[in-house]
Amino acid sequence: MVNGGANPNGEKLFNRIAVLRAERGLSRQDLADALEVNYQTIGFLERGDYAPSLTLAFGLSDYFGLPIEAIFSRQPLRPLSEQVYRRNGDEK
Amino acid sequence: MLTDNRKLTLRRRRWMVIGYYAGAAALPVIGIAAMRWRFAGHIAVMAFFPLLTAFAGLLGGISPGGPVRYYGQPGGRTARDGFLTRRSLTGGKGPLGEMPLDERDFAVRDRAHYRAMRIVRILVGPYALAVWFVVDLRLPGLPALAGLGAYVLFILAMTLPQAILFWTEPEPGLDPETRANSPMVGAAQ
Hints:
The complex is a heterodimer. Chain A has helices spanning 17-23, 28-35, 39-47, 54-64, 68-71, 80-91, and strands spanning 3-6, 12-15, 72-73. Helices cover 55% and strands 11% of the residues of chain A. In chain A, strand 1 (3-6) and strand 2 (12-15) form a beta hairpin. Chain B starts with 9 loop residues before the first helix and ends in an 8-residue tail after the last helix. The A-B interface holds A 27-30, 36-41, 43-44, 47, 49-50, 52-53, 55-56 and B 69, 71, 73-74, 99, 101-105, 107, 170, 172-175, 177-178, 181.
């Protein structure tokens, strides 16, 4: 599930927070508690209805142990599985 | 418990706003009728102001930070919620100690204030000009009209941000885990 939303400047920002959260078996409340935001905010982030601040984006990056560009993108994000298998195929 | 997510759907919030402003329109009519019927004089006028302030507070007007949010934390309210907080249509401050505003809440709140300010400033300018120009005409009924205008501006200035927040905020949308663990959130999503 890859979602995109607009930041205050009207630029689209896509993310894969929902996928990463689901992979780790976390509820929105769990993630919200870890990031010290309200659980509603996680929902808005996942749906792309809210573009986070840099602080929150770095918080997500630290929490998932991934670079920010793996979580957020200004281009639509390809499914993770597709990226992983394509990379494996390239290496062969 | 009006901050229950099951109850505060977008539709319900909008009806709440409509009902509130219908009540706000009825309040001066009731007040004037009461004064003409029985309660006259300065004491009646003095008694009106606390009533008016409490009424404005129903829509988040007198919470220190102004309007905040319309939803409550799963798990419900705390014993620290005060009298007006419990009775506020908005939930007032809410259990701030346990659920402080985050960056999105601040952004939503500030945007609502900004939109309200744009509306109120359009009304304040003409109102001030009208009072300024006609105050020397000493027309009968003018003080009452000026008072009514001030009342409308007071109510709007105090409540419009929260009303905008009620009117525009989308449904929160919760994931199944949060829904299952919350006594406040039912299956109505």
